[in-house]
Automatic annotation (TrEMBL):
SMART domains on file: Alpha_kinase (SM00811)
The keyword Acetylation is annotated on this UniProt entry: no
Keyword terms of this UniProt record: Kinase, Serine/threonine-protein kinase, Transferase
InterPro entries: a-kinase_dom, Kinase-like_dom_sf, Thr-specific_kinase-like
Organism whose genome encodes this protein: Gigaspora margarita
One Pfam assignment: Alpha_kinase
Lineage of origin: Eukaryota, Fungi, Fungi incertae sedis, Mucoromycota, Glomeromycotina
Superkingdom of source: Eukaryota
Protein name: Kinase-like protein
The Alpha-type protein kinase domain, residue ranges: 90-265
GO-annotated molecular function: ATP binding; protein serine/threonine kinase activity
Transmembrane segments: none
Amino acid sequence: MKLKKILYYFGKINASTDVMLNIFREIIGDFPVFDLMTMGDNPEVLVDKFCKATSSAIFSSITLTTTLRNSERKLLCCIPPRTLDEVKDGFYFINSSFIEQDIFFKLAPQPFSVGAERYAYFALDTSLEQANRLVIKKYHDIKIGTIERYLESVEIFNIAYFFSTKFNIAAEQVGINKKVTFSDVKVLYDETDNTYYSVEKYISNAKFKKFKLNSGLITEFHSILEAFAHFTYKYTEGYLVAYDLQGADLHNENEWNSKMFFAKT
């Protein structure tokens, strides 16, 4: 399938195929798995999930395989803070040295989504034998050669990653088998036109919801994310708190992939 450039997708109805999926991954690497599991015996729910998953797979596949742009660029990564003191250090990220990685990728010619601040493009990381799917984002109003806003995204991810690891450990210690994870954000630098982008892994079949607005208003209550927000405030002794929580349920509410911002209190 790799030689034929076939993009493989799988629709999971129940856990009976888990062993088979693991064998497939050993052979062809990672691939998107659509959650088609339903509660009860309502076939309309299954059909609705199947149609949405199929539409998503077709749209992203056509977008990725029809692009003509194949590029080599550099990924800029930084080391996440290891202590609360480093999180509070206003110069930690300014003084951090970036780790550069070469990346070969194929970028869709048109964005699949246009948000209030950024365009979002499908992309394929072709650096490895198994192509990984990415989402590359570009700000609308950023001048060429300006990196500050993109570094802010990386800083937010690294701080969020720090708190999520502490939170998951604390939750496990009290018998809570739920986790909060965050999308790994890196900066992509294009030397040919001196342009920056943000890059993160594409999460298939994930519907991101907004749970808490910038004002702190809860739009949809979810106990694990509310607990995480409260944890950031208590852990830092009131220094900061998480807000503008957005996330997607990855494994039947046992793991949440989230995006967020922080506010100093």
